[in-house]
Amino acid sequence: PLDLSEEHMNLAHAFDIPACQGGNAPMATAYLARGGGPLRVLDAPYTGTVRKLPSGLVPKKYLKEALNFPNRVNATDNDTLKAAVVTYGAVYTTMRWSNDAWNASTSSFFDPGPRSSANHAVLLVGWDDNYSATRFTKVPKGNGAFLVRNSWGPEFGDRGYFWISYHDAYVGRDNAAFVAFAAAKDYDKVYQHDTYGQ
């Protein structure tokens, strides 16, 4: 699998949102479907600061299929997301980041809510139904957590990964997977009309 560049999407998404000010799965789908990416991290590494991308970057793949999955309705409604991870690999989801919900010593996160809406996107890559509730700063009502790949680099959490409780108030919404890609050499042009993006 490719290690895809979040920096390129951050700076080249072509929506009316400044760089480093957010996005969502439909924006990512539009970016990928129009042939804007993906690029390798080595070609456009994430810096966390706004900068100009080098010219001449060429996508390594073209998106052929993306899927959306329903929002979780409660802490035990995890079967669809688990099946998606097993079937397709990483699954895009949203969460609400807040520093007070973070336990750096165990690389775990739990926000019981209520706050406003989600403010961060991550990738679900695994789970542990027996992950202890005692490993979180605030103790949830039960065990279990998703393993998440974050976008803040390998210095964050456990080499870029962390655990988020099944009982978190925000995880498991706006879920998507980008499931089929074709080699960039297979296409010369992309002909489509997409009202969500260029």
Description:
Strands 1-8-2-5-6-7-4-3 form an 8-stranded mixed beta sheet, with helices on both faces. A hairpin with a 4-residue loop joins strand 3 (102-103) and strand 4 (108-109). Helices cover 13% and strands 24% of the residues. It starts with 5 loop residues before the first helix and ends in a 15-residue tail after the last strand. The mean pLDDT is 83. With 198 residues, the chain is α+β, with helices and mostly antiparallel strands. 31% of the residues are buried. It is built from 3 helices and 8 strands, in the order H-H-E-H-E-E-E-E-E-E-E.
Q: Would you summarize the structure shown here?
A:
By secondary structure, the chain is of the alpha+beta class.
Keywords:
198 residues, 3 helices
* Unreliable runs: none
**Spatial strand sequence of the major β-sheet:** 1-8-2-5-6-7-4-3
Count up the helices. Answer: 3
Average the pLDDT over all residues and give the rounded result. Answer: 83
Helical residues, percent: 10-25%
SS class: alpha+beta
Sheet having the most strands: 8 strands, mixed
User: Based on DSSP secondary structure assignment, what is the total number of beta strands?
Assistant: 8
- Shape call: globular
β-strand percent reads 15-25%
Q: Radius of gyration in whole Å, from Cα?
A: 17 Å
- Which sequence of SSEs, written as H and E, runs from N to C? HHEHEEEEEEE
Q: Termini separation (Å)?
A: 27 Å
